[in-house]
Amino acid sequence: xxxxxxxxxxxxxxxxDIVAIRHFLHQNPELSxxxxxxxxxxxxxxxxxxxxxxxxxxxxYGIYGFVNGKTDNGNLIALRADMDALPxxxxxxxxxxxxxxxxxxxxGHDVHIASLLGALRIINEMRDYFNGRVMFIFQxxxxxxxxxxxxxxxxxxxxxxxxxxxxxxxxxxxxxxxTLGLKAGNYMASTDEFYVKIIGKGGHGAMPNLNIxxxxxxxxxxxxxxxxxxxxxxxxxxxxxxxxxxxTENGRTNITPSTVKLEGIIRxxxxxxxxxxxKRITQICERTAESFGAKAEVFIDKGYPSLFNDERVTAMTxxxxxxxxxxxxVFDLNERMTAEDFAYFAREIPACYFRVGTKKHNExxxxxxxxxxxxxxxxxxxxxxxxxxxxxxxxxxxx
Length: 399
What we know:
There is one protein chain. The protein is an alpha/beta fold. The protein has helices spanning 3-13, 15-27, 36-46, 109-125, 148-154, 214-232, 271-291, 311-325, 342-348, 378-397; strands at 53-58, 62-68, 76-82, 133-139, 165-176, 180-182, 185-188, 190-199, 203-204, 240-248, 255-256, 259-268, 295-302, 307-309, 330-332, 351-359. It folds into 2 domains: 3-188 and 306-397, Aminopeptidase, CATH 3.40.630; 190-302, Alpha-Beta Plaits. The protein is built from 10 helices and 16 strands. The strands form 4 sheets. It has an 8-stranded mixed sheet with strand order 1-2-4-3-5-16-6-15, sandwiched between helices. A 4-stranded antiparallel sheet has the order 10-12-8-13, with helices on one face.
């Protein structure tokens, strides 16, 4: 049987097992840096795979290891899945809904883990089909800065064995089950957070002349910050600056508070412009506050870099995706302003981060990070099969 047919047959055969893995993970979600049970469960599944070796408790609860082909000719590629859940109260009526109050796999990381475990089962069963090795990475703490990717790199997971390419995917509820999307070059934005404290002078709201109103100051700052995008950024450079929190210390209608706090995000794709945007945010906040007689304290927390998909590796992924999914089911995507700490891996190793469609047929989209998020579980059969197909074909092409 040809490789594609054999892999698809195995993915279908193991589908129920992959679903059962996802259900356990979905019922038992764990937040960033607390993925102990998730890690233990993954290790138990890996122990079922003959000849597979791995290391655990990397950068917290991370795991990495290897599936060997028929010979070790020095070729090595990597597959990665993230492990953590989100602080969200699930509102679905799924029979396997979260049993951990206030914690939910609302971003599909349970799907990522289950699919990669399924792919590893297929790859291990087909190890006579390829030379070289497949490295697998189960990464903790993708959702919380500084993120598990940079911590695993600092722990030295590539010191002795550096892959020639690395791959990962994300569930995508806007795309139908049975489809795949990808984009070469800049794909996902860098993400930084900024925190501004405006210090004025509080007092009675009926005597504003005796106060320095930090609400008015903060309001001017909010508007002025938008000019960074509209008047400073290159029109061709996607940039987002968003205020997510506007916080005052008092809750009375007749009290002017002494301080206001602003919290927001910066998303873009170019490192040089990213640093310039940081400078402009600080200048606008400090100088606007000063013009009103107030003071602004600015802290910018630098987060994940932008995610760049290697041109050659992405073209190769697209070629294999068309073979596996069919030409009509593989799509070119646009840049996304969402962020992903896989970007750290992609800065070390030629990478392709792609999207697998998870939308349920004839049902409304349930968006990522929402309390009612769910997927068409058939997407895991496609994802597990394609990860195995991709890994084996890439290694075959290097033989």
